[in-house]
Write a structure and sequence with these properties.
Blueprint (H helix, E strand, L loop, with lengths): L1 E2 L6 E2 L1 E5 L9 H6 L9 E5 H10 L2 H6 L4 H5 L2 H11 L7
Antiparallel strand pairs: 1-2, 3-4
Helix pairs in contact: 2-5
């Protein structure tokens, strides 16, 4: 098991595309990120953080405004969730 890149807990990890796959075909998004390989640009995070990202932030906003680890860590509601989940001893459902 490795540590989540957001909450730093040792968990089973999933791959989060920083430019959501749903937006890969949108021309202005693809053009904005043309220097990146948008298929492999992402971070390894736990399922809890991954679910919360998609619960809190729409796909288009992820692609345009929250497309880096640093930007995600600065999202107010996600930051609160990460602080909370770090204090949990068991895996969150």
């Amino acid at each position: 098991m490795n540590n989540c890149e957001l909450c730093n807990r040792a968990q089973e990890l999933t791959f989060h595309h920083l430019i959501p796959k749903k937006n890969h075909k949108i021309k202005h998004i693809r053009e904005k990120h043309n220097s990146l390989n948008i298929n492999t640009y992402g971070i390894k995070i736990c399922k809890d953080c991954h679910k919360m990202i998609h619960k809190l932030i729409p796909h288009k906003s992820l692609a345009l405004d929250y497309n880096s680890k640093e930007k995600l860590l600065n999202h107010n509601d996600l930051k609160k969730f990460i602080q909370w989940v770090k204090s949990q001893t068991k895996k969150v459902k």
